[in-house]
Amino acid sequence: MKAASFAFVAISSIVPSVLGGTYSRSENIVGQGFYNSFNFEAIGDPTNGRVQYVDKATAMSRNLTFASGNTFILRADSTSVTGAPGRPSVRIRTNNAYTTHVAVFDVAHMPQGCGWETDEANWPRGGEVDILEGVNDQGSNQVTLHTTSGCTMPASRTQTGTSLQLDCNWAINGNTGCGVRVNTASSYGPSFNANGGGWFAIERTNTFINVWFWPRNAGNVPADVRSGGTSVNTGSWGTPTANFPNTSCNFPSFFDANNIIINLTFCGDWAGAVYGSSGCPSTCNNFVDNNPSAFTNAYFQFNSINIYK
């Protein structure tokens, strides 16, 4: 699930970077509401994936997206042998763009299997925060910022995750960005799905960005997150999974008002590059083209997305 491009700011290293606040709900995106809140982008894949993004009418007619009650499904084709440009799939972007806000994603299922990737390449200008980032079925989730040169993160931060590369510059190490590994196995892939999913949340302010993840069965899920209520108080959510302070990153210089993007692509710049070491068969493009049934579980299922300001 590619969740989004988001933005931040910097003032001083002495500014508290994990303090929360109270926000009121501005959007409750559930079921059919996804069709109203998102735009379908039938474009070439920015990450050079083996994928063909389709428009809204095609997605609905081919059952690549459907909504029922409080459920929205976004999936790739799993019935057809394909060729270039790739397997039919879906990429959606919110009509609204966001600066200071909180977004809570209630996700019941994410794609699993070989060849898939959730990663957005709207780099480098405008900034990007990947709330959910990964390839194939490898490891736990990773939360990552991508910027132009000049934005870095401190090694020591108040978070439960593990800091990875500290330089957010997209040009370093092949667009790696400054990431935080989520130290919860059920934050990604088959383990996430087997556990019934969970909640991802992001808080963006002018001085920090925080990201949280709570598994479905966790005992510490905040009541306002679990209920999807009309307001949230991030100050009661506990230590974030990933904390990005403004210590050495002037956020307004690196991030614009950004949209939430959800996409499902295959192979491409990231998944294709690591495919050979993933334990998956054949080549990435060949596997994606010729094994439609392998993508039966390549889908997102959202219970809701709530936006607070």
From TrEMBL:
Gene Ontology MF annotations: hydrolase activity
Database matches in SUPFAM superfamilies: Concanavalin A-like lectins/glucanases
Residues of the signal peptide: 1-20
CDD domains with a match to the protein in the record: GH16_fungal_Lam16A_glucanase
One Pfam match: GH16_XgeA
Keywords associated with the record: Hydrolase, Signal
Residues annotated as transmembrane: none
Biological process according to GO: glucan catabolic process
The protein's name: Glycoside hydrolase family 16 protein
